[in-house]
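User: What would this chain look like folded?
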Amino acid sequence: MWKPDPFIASLFDAPQGMAVGAQVVTYKPQFDPTRVSLPPVAVDAGEAAMMLGISRSMFYKLLDAGRIGPRGSRLGRCLRFSVAEMTAWAEAGMPRREEWVHMWPKGELHSV
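Assistant: Here's the prediction, encoded as structure tokens.
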């Protein structure tokens, strides 16, 4: 009767690791800070549009017309919108930009 090679069988019998020769090496997961998922602080125009349930092109049209209150901030060539400001603006009833800049306490800090 055929029997598997003992070494190969030991690979499948190793409970918490992998058998290497006669030694079992156990795997211990370590904390990897690059894999931590944090909620975003700022989003791009496409993500801001998704927050509002509209398309990105409609978001830009409304932004150009002054209908989107938050002005966004430039990070290099990228335009980003504060999630906190977008949320506060939506909760305030989505006022036009000229009204919103007086309502939002950090309005004077934006650069765009």
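Residues 107-112 have pLDDT under 50 and may be disordered. If you want, I can go into more detail on any region.
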